[in-house]
Amino acid sequence: MNFLKEIEWRGLISNNTKGTIDLLKRKVNLYSGFDPTSSSLHIGHLISIILSIHFKNYKHNVFFLLGTSTSLIGDPAGKKGERSLIKSEENFLYSRKIRKQLFNFSKQFKIPIINNNWNKKLKFIDFSRDIGKYFSINYMLTKDSVKKRRRSLSFTEFTYQLLQAYDFYFLYKNKNCVLQIGGSDQWGNITCGIELIKKKQKTQVHGLTHPLLTKSDGTKFGKTENGDNIWLDPNLTSPYKFYQFWMNISDVQAKKLIKIFTFSNKLSIYKIIALHNRTPFLRILQKKIAKNTTILVHSKKTFTDIYHINKILFNPNLKKIITFLSQNKLLLIKKYIPCKYIILNNTNIKFKILDILIIDNFICKSKNEALRKIKNQSLLLNMNPFFSDYVITKKDFLQKHFLLIKKGKKKFYILYFKYEV
Q: Which of 81, 298, 355, 408 could disulfide-link to 302, CB 3.0 to 4.6 Å?
């Protein structure tokens, strides 16, 4: 299967310029850009990274572009209102964090990272004369990112497409990049760069985008029930939560995403889909995607740890075996699931369960929520139901330090009681 058909079959092509098929018959230089407008990439960015890895696996020369300077402007694409400008200190911090995340993939797949600091050296008059003259206002107004916000778009945001176009031009001149890839919301910016190179260099370069994933209801894929992004930073989305996100996707989503978020070949994927269809309750597709993405983003060891934790927490006999869990196993669980430290300063230990449940809104956001869930038995203490007036004492502790709280069907919390020295 040729490369373009391969990534098309996987659902990784939204748009591409005429001539891309012929272009990719030979080895080419290309890049994918990432603006550090927050402290972490999320799983939406992961699609661009995976697409880049596919290009690399097919022997193309790939670059990651870290948009340190363009992030100071902010891409209006996909935004309903004006993006808040980030401060220079934030820009420095975010750039370091995103570079560190990209380096994880850069190291694994030998993809160099380039910073677009060249934009910071541009002078406004020179840029207007040398770049701006190639674009009519009418051309710039046809871009979706502009059309959708024509009345509220600031001049700052309006210039973003020119800056990204200049990135493409710079990388064509200095790295011989003849292809830019990215999400479908970047198509307008990518074609702007193609137009600039065509006019300045009298040559044709190309662009290719992948779809932005959405759920069956049309909402953005990659967010939790609360609307939080699934981040690649383990401090923002724990590896355990990251793994569980993939485990909880629907069968319909899984059949689509197995092609995008794994590198298994076509035959292997069709076999695993067929196996899943015969035994859907085993969630074979979800497990495969969860394993691959966790290893890719975090590490094989992290996946192994989480796999063992899942075997413990979702063991149907957990209620019987919980008091026999070793301290090492409890410490492993504590490492990955939400944990709250509570300092003990005397030997007479008694805590009202309600006070524990609402401390710092860690498990429940209010006493009413806690009372409601206790009544419905959707809160369990060490896998046992309890009454609202229950008092925790030392006899409840697992291995002298731990309490395990289960909330609903899938959420677990650890309370770690530490004795004051």
A: 298
45 catalytic residue (yes or no): yes
pLDDT digits (tens, 9 = 90+) for 316-348: 999 999 999 999 999 999 999 999 998 887 666
Q: Tell me: do 294 and 352 sit in the same domain.
A: no
Residue 409 and residue 272 in one domain: no
Active-site entry in 45, 206, 291, 406: 45
Same domain, 170 and 33: yes
Cα angle 85-86-91, degrees, rounded to a multiple of 5:
145
SS3 of residue 420 by DSSP = coil
The model's pLDDT over 27-48, given as tens digits with 9 standing for 90+, comes to 999 999 999 999 999 999 999 9
Indicate if the pLDDT at residue 81 is higher than 70: no
Are 286 and 167 in a shared domain? no
How many CA atoms does the CB half-sphere of 164 hold within 13 Å? 32
Whether 5 is catalytic: no
- My answer on whether 377 and 255 are in the same domain is no
Could you list the beta-strand ranges (E) of 132-273: 177-183, 206-210
Spacing of C-alpha 64 from chain mean position:
16
| Catalytically annotated residue among 42, 60, 148, 175 | 42
The span from the CA of 136 to the CA of 150, in Å, is: 16
Annotation marks residue 164 as catalytic: yes
The answer as to whether 413 is a domain residue is: yes
Active-site hit among 79, 329, 340, 411: 79
Q: What beta strand segments (E) does 272-356 contain?
A: 339-344, 351-352
pTM as predicted: 0.91
Whether 37 sits among the annotated catalytic residues: the reply is yes
146 vs 382, more confident: 382
Q: Out of 173, 220, 372, 375, which one is annotated catalytic?
A: 220
Residue 74: per-residue pLDDT: 83
